[in-house]
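Re: the multi-chain job from yesterday

Posting the exact lines I submitted so nobody has to dig through the queue logs.
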Amino acid sequence: MNLSMLNLLPFIEWTASSSLSHAISTSTWAFAVIESIHLLALSVIGGSVLMVDLRLLGFGIKTQTLEKLARDVQPWFLCSWTVMIVTGSLLFVSEPQKLYYSTPFAVKMTCLLLGTIFALTVRRKVSLAGEGQVSPIVMKLVALVSLTLWFGVGAGGRWIGFSG
Amino acid sequence: MSLLPFCQWLAETPGSIALHESLFMYPLVESAHVLTLCLFLGMAIMFDLRLLGFALTRVPITEMKGRLGPWMIAGFVVMVITGALLFYAIPVRSYQSVWFRGKVIALILAGLNAFVFHATIDRRVAQWDLDPVPPPAARRAGAASLILWAVVVVAGRMIAYNWFDCDKQPQPHAVNVFAGCVVPPAGGR
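And the result, structure tokens for all chains:
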């Protein structure tokens, strides 16, 4: 499985021939620096996801209601998500052809899409529902789905570097 | 005292060679090392942001420590074990890497910062446990921690790049000194 199923070749070729792509891929430092920022944002998004998912699982912070905790953490999630997307896009632009045919990249993008939708819909609804509105089993299930999807994003991302 | 002979000996051990040349073990260990960032550093960042008064301002400091601490420690243990294995797989090059050495220095400073925090302002945590914005000493510790861990992460990522490797001469004198490169003196440049 890879993204070539989507028939995006003209877009991929256009991206690869752009001056931005050329600038990043021929620079000694650009890719490494962008990648480092991507990693730093990973730490923040990891922390903000875990804060809520651990709570949903029954671990983590207890003195706050789940709703308050989720609202407190949300700006950090959204900010780090944005940094991830911007730096990730730049990394993509620097080597679009490789990623177009990469299976780990396709896995990562699928998990990213599902993880983001899940975070903004089901998980958000459950975490803002208020005490006693959602059964603990559903909360734990939501946390496990969330953790699995974000793990897929991270592991897929790391695996891009090991393949091809 | 140079640890180079030790690293050279380590590199010749069967375990080191096996890990270095393994198809899946090395990538798996490295992936575990990177992804555990989310657990260890993710929790540490949340704690530091709380110390700075930037996030979770209504959560008591002692609760942050008590409830997140075990996860942080678990993450740290995985980081140290996987990190040690990564070093074990590539000892000589890591030992002579400016990035690895920079990372170790930043790690030591981050440890010292945590130690000073626990030995000083954290002892009086009862007085500021519920403060939305903790006292300056606590905020300084939080800021220093964020900066030092960021240096650790960036330096760690850069170990993968060979810009300053000893076998890639000529390098600036300062790089060779800091990396501990053994450069032939006469006509070496």
